[in-house]
Backbone:
């Protein structure tokens, strides 16, 4: 959460910072601000609540030139949304921006007697004042002393009044990437802000200091010893981070799913079955384990729920799915015979990262399924399987979810093969069916206009229920989350048989129920559950396969997906559920890509 950018170089710094903040805005958009050295080498701060556009209009009035500065877009943690709480924070000779949470800021406020000095309610400003107290002309010494005193997570970019043209940065947990480019030195909380200037970058190692000047970027340890950065290459292109003519990133990303699936699946096919040799994932990882534990948050966790329902019946070993924020505080029943699969689009979600570290400390084998290359989770897990969705900008995850599923389906197939649950021809057939899901997704995307009318009734309601059985239940969880987060309609997903154990009391006239019935072995049971809610007056939107037999009048709206093997229906169903959420958000005139209170990358607890 919170977007960070810093620049020092020959170009107009304000332009670079503001453009970068627009790219990073999906990380948080409660307020935005920049600080830069002006023509007289004084630090000038401009910050404002609201989106980056607000800040841009204020900055348009500034006339002086700047060549070094830092910028921040905020997702509020400590302290409400106000101009004072916006970053950058000034404290004596220090100006800084921060991503993360300083957990002991209360203690520091007392210890350094800061109460009367604070202009904001933020933990970040406390860190700025503590740094200022330590600053006696040596940024390195002051930063080292600060790090000795603070607890929590941080990515800081710092400027000192008497060091024009210089930016210092340091991080723990919160991500920072940096690069020296033809246009100057750049640092940011993620790659999207660097892509316009460079393809090569390095991930700032934790507890190291980066110094940016107009002509160079240097990395050192806390003692000041030079360290060579480990350079990496970006393989995303700028187009994939732009809207390309779509009105919203979310719609663009929904459209990109078939291609993203191909990118994730095709390079990993050898002789018709999944093969992870190029990912350096050995088969022994899949044969040694006696149980699987999947850990993730939100949408990624829902992908894990689908994987559980898919894997257990084939592999015949226990598959447990944990919410990372719960798992990390448990005393988990995992050991060296457990394969822990960590799923994360960003690779930076703090709870997921902490869960990974806990799993490793229990001796478990860890395999991360991650979209962002070089992210912390990717680097720290024993093995990584990258999904190839490209940058996902809309806060609501769409293509990242379907490629996570594709990766999990591939793993499931390879595991079944190497554990002799699938013959080669069964594994081949599985993969062929997986590939068949791609045109099925394309069909649903092509028909998107037809689905607009679906939401007319939904958007007038306060509550929506989703229900399904087996795999369909796992899909429902994601459908409900998607609807909630961008349309602000309360939505709940139920295992269809469970509804009558209490919640059916809420089904009254016209209450929408989205029933997913694509699993043949429970189809008849599902239809009975649909009848139960229909009998109470529900407005039923029913999702089935093309040739499912459904009696006239059972559903108010009936959407059919192409006939696929039951195990693969999630792919076209995901598209429908995403489109329902998308059109509901549009229908309510909401901000689709940047829904309230959310941020793309959740790097705080
Ligand atoms: C919802 C959504 C979130 C993320 C969750 C985990 O649309 O995007 O629920 O799935 O915050 O994020 P990652 O996958 O980056 O760990």
Residues:
């Amino acid at each position: 959460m919170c977007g960070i950018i810093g620049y020092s170089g020959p170009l107009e710094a304000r332009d670079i910072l503001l453009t970068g903040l627009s790219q990073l805005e999906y990380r948080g958009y409660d307020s935005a601000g920049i600080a830069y050295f002006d023509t007289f080498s004084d630090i000038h701060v401009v910050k404002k609540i609201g989106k980056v556009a607000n800040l841009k209009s204020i900055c348009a009035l500034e006339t002086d030139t700047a060549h070094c500065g830092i910028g921040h877009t905020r997702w509020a943690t400590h302290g409400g949304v106000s101009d004072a709480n916006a970053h950058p924070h000034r404290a004596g000779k220090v100006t800084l921006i921060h991503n993360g949470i300083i957990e002991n800021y209360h203690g520091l406020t007392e210890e350094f007697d800061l109460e009367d000095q604070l202009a904001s309610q933020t933990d970040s400003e406390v860190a700025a004042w503590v740094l200022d107290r330590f600053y006696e002309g040596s940024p390195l010494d002051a930063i080292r002393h600060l790090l000795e005193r603070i607890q929590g997570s941080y990515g800081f970019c710092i400027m000192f009044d008497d060091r024009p043209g210089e930016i210092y940065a340091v991080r723990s947990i919160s991500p920072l990437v940096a690069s020296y480019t033809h246009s100057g030195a750049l640092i940011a909380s993620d790659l999207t802000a660097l892509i316009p200037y460079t393809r090569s970058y390095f991930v700032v190692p934790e507890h190291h200091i980066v110094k940016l000047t107009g002509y160079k970027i240097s990395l050192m340890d806390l003692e000041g010893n030079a360290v060579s950065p480990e350079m990496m290459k970006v393989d995303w292109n700028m187009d994939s981070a732009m809207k390309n003519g779509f009105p919203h990133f979310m719609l663009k990303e929904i459209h990109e799913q078939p291609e993203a699936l191909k990118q994730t699946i095709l390079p990993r096919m050898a002789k018709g079955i999944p093969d992870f040799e190029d990912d350096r994932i050995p088969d022994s990882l899949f044969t040694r384990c006696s149980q699987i534990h999947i850990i993730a948050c939100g949408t990624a966790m829902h992908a894990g729920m689908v994987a559980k329902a898919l894997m257990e019946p084939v592999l015949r070993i226990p598959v447990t799915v944990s919410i990372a924020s719960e798992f990390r505080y448990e005393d988990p029943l995992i050991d060296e015979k457990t394969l822990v699969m960590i799923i994360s689009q960003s690779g930076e979600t703090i709870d997921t990262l902490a869960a990974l570290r806990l799993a490793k400390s229990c001796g478990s084998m860890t395999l991360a399924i991650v979209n962002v290359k070089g992210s912390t989770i990717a680097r720290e897990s024993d093995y990584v399987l990258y999904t190839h969705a490209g940058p996902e900008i809309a806060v609501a995850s769409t293509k990242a979810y379907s490629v996570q599923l594709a990766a999990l389906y591939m793993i499931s197939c390879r595991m079944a093969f190497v554990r002799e649950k699938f013959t080669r021809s069964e594994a081949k057939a599985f993969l062929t069916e997986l590939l068949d899901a791609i045109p099925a997704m394309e069909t649903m995307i092509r028909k998107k206009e037809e689905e607009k009318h679906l939401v007319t009734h939904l958007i007038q309601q306060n509550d929506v229920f989703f229900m399904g059985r087996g795999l369909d239940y796992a899909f429902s969880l994601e459908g409900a989350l998607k609807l909630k987060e961008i349309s602000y309609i309360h939505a709940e997903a139920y295992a269809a048989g469970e509804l009558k154990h209490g919640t059916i009391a809420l089904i009254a006239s016209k209450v929408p129920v989205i029933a997913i019935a694509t699993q043949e072995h429970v189809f008849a049971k599902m239809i009975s559950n649909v009848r139960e809610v229909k009998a109470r007056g529900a407005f039923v939107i029913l999702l089935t396969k093309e040739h499912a037999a459904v009696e006239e009048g059972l559903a108010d709206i009936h959407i059919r997906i192409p006939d696929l093997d039951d195990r693969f229906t999630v792919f076209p169903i995901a598209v429908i559920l995403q489109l329902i959420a998308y059109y509901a958000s549009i229908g309510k005139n909401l901000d689709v890509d940047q829904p309230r209170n959310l941020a793309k990358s959740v790097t705080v607890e």
